[in-house]
Amino acid sequence: MASLSTAIFQPSTSQHLVEKLNIPCRYYNVGLCRFGDNCRYLHVEESSSIPTPFENNNCDLSLASTSSSSSSTSTNFLNPQAPIFVPISMRESDSQPKTYADVVNANRPIDPIEWTPPVDDSLTLCPFLMKSGFCRYENCCYAHGEMCELCGKFCLDPLNSEQRKQHHSECIAAHEKEMELAFSIQRSKEKTCGICFDIVWEKDSREQRFGILPNCNHCFCLECIRTWRQAKQFDNKIIRSCPECRTCSDFVCPSSFWVDNPEEKQQLISKYKTALKEKDCKYFKKGAGTCPFGNKCFYRHCLPDGKTVDVGEPTRPIRLNSLGQLDTRLQSVLFWDFLEERIVTEDLFASDSDSDSSDFIFY
Amino acid sequence: MANMAVSRIKREFKEVLRSEEIAQCSIKLELVNDCFTELRGEIAGPPDTPYEFGTFLLEIHVPETYPFNPPKVKFLTKIWHPNISSVTGAICLDILKDNWAAAMTLRTVLLSLQALLASPEPDDPQDAVVASQYKENFEMFCRTAKHWTNSYAKGPHKFPDFDTKIQRLKDMGVSEFDARAALSRHNWDLNRATEQLFS
């Protein structure tokens, strides 16, 4: 919101010549335009010199309105109170009548900062009061909204309880989100990595990420825990386990914030898994190769036409242990081995690794 | 040397200096050179063990890959212990080998070594002779260990009979350490020790 309001009130001076839109400035006419010569809209006296495409009287247009007051409009196209023009051809099909400006600027993209009046029957709230908190015009032609206690903006329509309710719930949701973020920051900013002993958020910007272990709550930075889990000189059992408590975890989940609450952690991990499922398996190669991990692979197995396929159980020869039982433990270790390796190789080639989505490129 | 190793050792060094164990004089850590790769550790013999009142010096070498690899540690002080070589001071302790974890520190290593002195593992020995003596003749092991602690680690327990036997071998031109080692290996049987030394 803050950026939007500055965009509206900062005159877009000097940097570039203002491209004039072929629309009369609605503020100029009520004496409120603060942009002066830099305004994108036309500063003309009402009903004087707006160019009209209707020079030719043979033009096949007629007035949509049937109100009696429209009788004078045939002589004055430019009356701002004029009813809306609708071409005959569109009158039946279009439920929404087009304004004069729409017709004139049919191909022009909609200006994002252009303020469009609400179409419903609620009051039009004063945009000055809403954005900046004061309105300097005594006889403001807009309704002055009431202040929302949460966001401090004058944006509550005094007559529309539905709008007030909706704004209130939006405000609460935004507030909750902010609080959550503040808590996450508070929780994360002092955390130290148990391997390098540095405060994770004080490391280089690229390394300011936590490596969350699913099965215990010990804190490491992503780089360190990955390096540890890559160590070749130790048994899998050793490097798969937490360097602090030796609890075994099958994978590391990258996160920008420290998470130790079980619910949030579960959420983070499932989000991570979902994101991985979006990536194509480099072994399956869209059907061209075979993935040794079969349907246990966490990456996507889909054909060039986008159809997902179930390739069945892993093809790796099933090993039996000394008792003749299936050695599933060994298999899973090999699978995680592969994942860990892929994580690192892909990380090296990941370009914008600071973006959120790139947190999810590896598994 | 890798950056991480240096910065970690610096932090750990401070941690050890601040730790309670320093206050209790049970462990000590000193720098040998300026680049934080060589350190000197010191642990006190744990109470109620043959090593009580002794102080044992350790040589610590920090590899470049620390903390992803364990520091190399060995005893500089001669010690009679099933898991420590009486000749070289090499230590058999899982955390210094394949059971290392990156979150361990020099402080935890020193404390683990102290714990190892308190509870030897004769079934996983570094020095097989000491280990078999520990298992077969525990009393003899305790006396020998106390004697070694007295001779090398400033322990208080003196054993005049042992000293006499060592002196006998020294008179024959054997060095004090060789004499002590040979006698210790043969449960202080002078004849067998002599036989081993001169065979």
TrEMBL record, chain A:
Residues 193-246 form the RING-type domain. GO terms for biological process: protein polyubiquitination. InterPro entries: MKRN-like, Znf-CCCH_4, Znf_C3HC4_RING-type, Znf_CCCH, Znf_CCCH_sf, Znf_RING, Znf_RING/FYVE/PHD, Znf_RING_CS. It comes from the Eukaryota. The keyword Repeat applies. The keyword Zinc-finger applies. Residues 19-46, 120-147, 275-304 form the C3H1-type domain. PANTHER family: IP09428P-RELATED, MAKORIN-RELATED. Keywords: Metal-binding, Repeat, Transferase, Ubl conjugation pathway, Zinc, Zinc-finger. Its EC number is 2.3.2.27. Pfam families: zf-C3HC4, zf-CCCH, zf-CCCH_4. One of its GO terms (cellular component) is nucleus. A zinc finger (C3H1-type) spans 19-46, 120-147, 275-304. It catalyses: S-ubiquitinyl-[E2 ubiquitin-conjugating enzyme]-L-cysteine + [acceptor protein]-L-lysine = [E2 ubiquitin-conjugating enzyme]-L-cysteine + N(6)-ubiquitinyl-[acceptor protein]-L-lysine. One of its GO terms (molecular function) is ubiquitin protein ligase activity. Transmembrane segments: none annotated. This is RING-type E3 ubiquitin transferase.
From TrEMBL, chain B:
Residues 161-199 form the UBA domain. Signal peptide: none annotated. The active site is at residue 92. It comes from Clunio marinus. Keywords: ATP-binding, Nucleotide-binding, Transferase, Ubl conjugation pathway. It is an enzyme of class 2 (transferase). SMART domains: UBA, UBCc. The keyword Signal does not apply. It comes from the Eukaryota. Residues 4-154 form the UBC core domain. This is E2 ubiquitin-conjugating enzyme. Its EC number is 2.3.2.23. Gene3D superfamilies: DNA helicase RuvA subunit, C-terminal domain, Ubiquitin Conjugating Enzyme. It holds the Pfam family UQ_con. Belongs to the ubiquitin-conjugating enzyme family. The keyword Flavoprotein does not apply. One of its GO terms (molecular function) is ubiquitin conjugating enzyme activity.
